[in-house]
User: Fold this.
Amino acid sequence: MPPTVATTDLLIIGAGPAGLMAACWASQYPNMTTRIIDKRPGRTPTGHADGLQSRSLEILESYGMVDAILQKGVQHAEMCYWGRNKCTGGIERQKRSRARMGDGERYHMVLLNQGLVEQTFLDSLRGKGVVKVEYGVRAETLVLKGEEEDEYPVEVGVRRVGADGASGAGDDWEVIRARYIIGCDGAHSWTREQLKVPVRVCSGDSTWGVVDIVPISDFPDIRQSCAIHSGENGSIMTAPRENRLVRFYTYPKGDGKLNVEGRDQSDVSLDDLVESIRNAMRPYQLTYKHCDWWSIYKIGQRLVETYRPHGRVFLAGDAAHTHSPKAGQGMNVSMQDTYNLVWKLGSVIAGAAAPSILDTYDLERWPVGEELLRLDTELVEAYEQDVTSTEGVERVRGKYVDFMTGMGIAYGPSALISGNSSDPSVARNMKVGMRLASYPVVAQADGVCSQLAGRFASNGAWRLLVFPGDLRQSHTQSSLESFADKFNKQPHLSRWQKTPGLGRCYPLETILVHSSPRTSINLLDLPDTFHPFDEAWGRDYSRVFSDDGSDGGDLGHVYDGYGIQEMGCLVLCRPDQHVAWIGSLEEVEALEEFFARISP
Amino acid sequence: MPPTVATTDLLIIGAGPAGLMAACWASQYPNMTTRIIDKRPGRTPTGHADGLQSRSLEILESYGMVDAILQKGVQHAEMCYWGRNKCTGGIERQKRSRARMGDGERYHMVLLNQGLVEQTFLDSLRGKGVVKVEYGVRAETLVLKGEEEDEYPVEVGVRRVGADGASGAGDDWEVIRARYIIGCDGAHSWTREQLKVPVRVCSGDSTWGVVDIVPISDFPDIRQSCAIHSGENGSIMTAPRENRLVRFYTYPKGDGKLNVEGRDQSDVSLDDLVESIRNAMRPYQLTYKHCDWWSIYKIGQRLVETYRPHGRVFLAGDAAHTHSPKAGQGMNVSMQDTYNLVWKLGSVIAGAAAPSILDTYDLERWPVGEELLRLDTELVEAYEQDVTSTEGVERVRGKYVDFMTGMGIAYGPSALISGNSSDPSVARNMKVGMRLASYPVVAQADGVCSQLAGRFASNGAWRLLVFPGDLRQSHTQSSLESFADKFNKQPHLSRWQKTPGLGRCYPLETILVHSSPRTSINLLDLPDTFHPFDEAWGRDYSRVFSDDGSDGGDLGHVYDGYGIQEMGCLVLCRPDQHVAWIGSLEEVEALEEFFARISP
Assistant:
């Protein structure tokens, strides 16, 4: 019997965090057909990755998913560093380091097992009803055709497999013809292997021991993240988790008597691991009754030479980069890979943007992978160099803190990131290429106070933020009017503003944040572009905000926070909230050129 | 064929907000079997009640449901009062009134149609999987037997009905034998009729017109709550809602030319209603394309003489009280009725508490119904007395603001509310009978900052809050130790602390909030009762908090907020977060007596 043949715009291979994030983004583009397959019978049950950094939480918020994560997870509030006391030989606390949030930042790191993170994605996907994960489906063949000869040039043969990985009958064979595929299939990526993508190996495999248990212990910092260097008794890392669990890591050359290096789950038992952890925690006690998950696994520092080994094939997550679990980065960088990619695919497939924007994926994400390995190398070295003190570890963590939270990631110049903003001084604290910080604002229409970021849902829209200054001044008002007038006359800007159907929104929204007292302004007196009218749905009242400090709270800090000068400015935010361009209210032509360049 | 006969501890009749809240509470008591029936084919589709007040949101939070509501609903931030301009004859804004949150309060009112509120309850019930709403089931017969002769003295005959309300075949007949029933079956309550419960009629029926539309209008406050008195053109109320909807109410003797009084949906059209609203809003325009829901309905001010017409039968929600929609109270007081009741039923059925505590339901909730009608009467009068100005309305709203938010509701002395706290000055800003205010605290074990109220999940537990003061002082430490020592020796307190199985927790938890810097204290040095040990699950690290202001933010205000004096105090909170008793750290015997009195 011939196999079933189906076509899809996008095929995602692998439903771990990177794949699920891709599916979630794809759900926002109803014009793009998407399938996601995973050879496993279902989601990760528990264990595995467990750290969600600040930027990842912002992204989850932009999908309306962060509350579920915050409810289930444990917040990381403080890190404690423990070293060896030279007199007693036991460990002692050397330092407490409180997790601080940067200006415009909103989340502390949250710890939650990967299974529950995946479940939150699955719940969200089910609620949207657009993309459904196909578990128990294994990709087995890959054929790439010329882009000219075939509209769906990527042919993936897949087979439905049982829970044991065994293939079923012959009629379980399907050929999926796709425009694009994303390989999110992990450290041993099948997709990567098919294309024989060169991999840069920065270190050989190291063996890690990890356990998630409910500890019974008198260690005073058992509910905090700790780095513990006990000298000859080995060194460990701990992190508090949901349901009274605590995660413990032992690491190569640092686990004292056990020395897991080169061994695996077949010759090291859970009790061996706990014994090794117990040794490192002396003089404190440690036992357990309940273990949620444990593993011994090998991992090396590796980075693919390109995230886009073929025009229609992308790699993301562990398929592109592997490293140690030391900095709690794995799930985060992986999810952020596909968060960077899929809105670009959605725009291209909807015909709104030129396919050339897809070049920016490798351009933007490969350097992040490279930086990740640099951090990891330094952190592993710091752990190995001094087994009795955690000073080195603390120094490396301090150096990379903005990278680790995701706040410091800045994409370089490209078609989607302007390299030559005319005057960077119009918004001194804002950097082109970085994600936009958030501050509380007051909505003009209803007086509700909320974070500006709450207006940046991941729905495919670009946002042009207009900061005119204080509208009670006549020159400010006239400069706003002249902006609006010019803005509406630009052909590309008009098209991007008025073409619905890309995602669930218009592809370009204008948002106004003025610095006048809210009650001094009547929304309907502002230019139409800030309250556009729809025949059926009336006016959009959600586009105007005030940076009005007169209502107390934490209000009135937007202009200061961004460092916006008196002349005001325009800020263009991409669908992934990264700042693409900054200019003055007069530079509408430069904005028009930006959109002209990325239009098909 | 004889009918099916089933038994259940609790039968809830009606799955509106009161019934669903009852089901949600009942889900927390796995030892109590519960059924909930509703004759409708499914939940309220849309429209109907739409206001959730501050206290209701706190309650939803305690079930983990508030995030879903906040995401879907619209926050009420400001109320605008519009009256008639004597010169122009049109309306003009007379006042803006910003919604303020009281000290220790955390939510602004949220507006969301009843259908989505019910859906949130249904989602939560499905997630718990304990109680499932049976739609399309109508109660038809009620037989009450003596409590001595039958363990299940309430017999309700129910019939499965089609979507049109028609009965099905004879085998759809079931007899449900229950220990207790709650009639949450609305203004025309079948349960109330069966028992011929006397009803106090405070006013005859008035007719209300209500529409939920997407308005197309130049009215500047269209996205805010407004009271509009236009003089001869009638008066209306407005409220912003989800999905660009706005709710408009017209009311009797205030709707200008239309005069809906005594009329119903058969002789007044939607366009008539909108025409009437348009008149009241002159000189502003109003049209619409989309209508979500509209209705004309009659309602009078009524209150049952008792909320417990029979030892085993309770009434709640509209079955107990009806009134105008003016103050946005309906859904709130109704949900709070069953929130007051079901934990008492759960404790009695689990054998933890004496059945006599059920007397407190009528004792506590009937006065709330009475106060509700008083507010409603004054508000209706204020609307009627001056049709050109809203001053009177504003005055009444100001007078009852604490009642309307739910913050001001204080239950009087009873078996569950102590009437004679020895020295009220130990916590000057706390009132026995009121719900406990919330402030941010720092968790001792992990340093996470959160609202103290986050620790008060609705799971059936009583909480004894221990406020010893600054534990760096030796007399404070010894007074805490002496408290713990005495506390553990009391037979009733020990039983309540150690009997699992009531709800999902122990029935009495001790929680410590000290005022020392967090890092000066080691949790394990505190008495065992604040970190109890469980063989399988280890220590409970979640019971100790610090009122430590040194970490900035809004911290360090708990002791001040509650007005706790240097000697410290004990505060007993019921499972519904109302303060049951306040005393000094020495008054452990008084606490023991409290629990002795309510024990079976």
